[in-house]
Design a protein that fits this description.
The protein has 79 residues and is an all-alpha fold. Helices cover 59% and strands 0% of the residues. The protein folds into two domains: 1-39, no CATH class; 45-79. It has helices at 2-6, 14-24, 28-32, 46-51, 56-75.
Length: 79
């Protein structure tokens, strides 16, 4: 069924969407973000998806490094 939903051959009920989101450990709106006309999601870029397959320790290290790099960029007013 999931493959048919992904290919647009079948619609998915709200309950099925919730079940899929729970199985993927994602908020339901993240499953829809690429299909919305507009989105305020901050989880639609490569940087977010790169963290999905990390261990919690790897994600913590990468997040800490990103924050440090952001502080350096702000210090030198690089946007």
């Amino acid at each position: 069924m999931l493959g048919r939903v992904e290919r647009g051959e079948r619609a998915c009920s709200l309950q099925s969407l919730i079940t899929i989101a729970n199985a993927l450990n994602l908020p339901a709106d993240e499953l829809l973000v690429d299909n919305l006309a507009t989105s305020n999601s901050t989880r639609d870029g490569d940087e977010f998806y790169s963290l999905l397959d990390c261990t919690p320790e790897e994600a913590a290290i990468l997040t800490k490094n990103m924050k440090s790099l952001k502080a350096i960029l702000k210090k030198y007013t690089i946007k």
